[in-house]
Amino acid sequence: MGLKDYLKTNYQRAFLVLFLITLTQATTTFYTYLTSPELNAISQRKFALFIELIAVQFVFGQICNSSFNIANIQNTKQTQNLFHQVRQNIVKHYYRKPEKVADMENHLGNDLQMIQTSYYDVYFYFACDLIYIVFTIGTLFTFHWILVAYSLVISFFAIVVPKLLEKYTNKATEKVSSKNAQFLNLIENWLNGLEELRRYKNKSILKKKIGESSHQLEQSEYQRDKSMIYVGMVAAIFDVMGRVGVPVIAGILFFNHQVSLGAILTAGYFANGIFYSVNSCVTKYIQLKSTKTLRDQLAKLQKIEADKKYDSIDEIASIEVKNLSVKYEHGEKIAYPNFVINRGEKVLLVGDSGTGKSTLLKVLLGQIKLSSGEVIFKNKNDELIHPDFNQIGYLAQDLTMFDASILENITMFNSKLNDRVNSAVEANAFVHDEEKLKDGLATEIEVKHNLLSGGQQQKVVLMRAMVHEKSILYLDEATSAIDQKGATKILRNLTQGKETLLMIAHNLSEEQRALFDREIHLEGK
Q1: pTM above threshold 0.85
Q2: Structural domain includes residue 307
Q3: Euclidean distance between the first and final Cα of the chain, in Å?
Q4: What is the pLDDT of residues 400-444, one digit of tens each?
Q5: 102 and 192 share one domain
């Protein structure tokens, strides 16, 4: 992300902003320059000329004020349009490569806010200051070239010296983003267990963990602000030298009869403006550079990789697990037996807790990397294929629901599938549940308010898989919250279909287990 992206958002608006801030600084410079002839008119007792100059100055002041405000509004509109595009691109990236919720929230929220306040907003005022410096230094030529030479020398040192410190501010900004991501991740992890903490009345550990992470975030922000202040202190030294030096030189030139009386005061005004702007430019430049790492990260997230070519899951004739093992971060290793699931088979995956049943499903979905072994997908000609795992129907223990109607949760917002819903409702024992709801399938649900019970939510997600006619289904405790009669009906319908089914389940009745073609037993170490 950078200036190029700002321009590409809307070239016409970007150049309008540039024109308006140039007009603003030009009128500001001329406004200040009029001070010299006004003072000369007073010293020469030319009252009529003085009034005329004041009137002209008033007009230019109004032009300056209007052009700046319009530029500011257009700049805000430009950046907001840019951020809309950026968010859309980042969402596309995460749609293909999901990450932790806290990381995604950080990039879409905090990081973009930081880029706006520390880059694009700063860039606007940086451009204003830079253009003003050019106009004012050029205007000093009308008084004497020595004033220009002195201003340029001091400006050079004011810019170069602080530039050497920019790497420290860049690291400080990167650390703030990192600590904020850690803080959001910690909040997500601990607040997910808030009910359990309340149950065991353990508020102190929550306060401690959040307090520690919050302190680290605050410290990183303090260090960043401190580095910015140090840069400002260095720039201020040259700022004072410029503000004092220019009027002193102008005074010497006046006593040598080389400039007029009005030039002394006007040169002082310009000196204040120049070195305030130089100091401001240096500080803003450091702020702009400090966001480079963060902007590069966001730019990387916006790069949309070309879709890889995958084979359809409808081509899968067999799924083979061979010498497979997975190693967790804490060192525990799980080894799996070799097995083959043929197309259309209904397989029940059983085993004690901790034997890696849910992990195996995630391995088969490509969500977890293997430590050893392989998962082999073959077509009916016994040829290796590379399926698109996103096409596989997967019902995890943590169900995914959306703030929408029940119907939309079933069809996943695809109205073309509405005609399949009624049969899915019957097959998944949801008829009586639908009758109890005031608006039936049109009932709007809010995830946080839990309108539907756990069993009803499982039925909705099962219907989702059914109406989308997934040819392969991985189910992780998909009927655990559904009553015995309803679960039996659902399992009977699932096992009578053409789909390839691999299901994890505990405590199934003998009748329910008999519906499956076979079982795969996982054992511990």
Answers
A1: no
A2: no
A3: 50
A4: 888 889 999 898 888 888 999 999 999 999 999 898 888 899 999
A5: yes
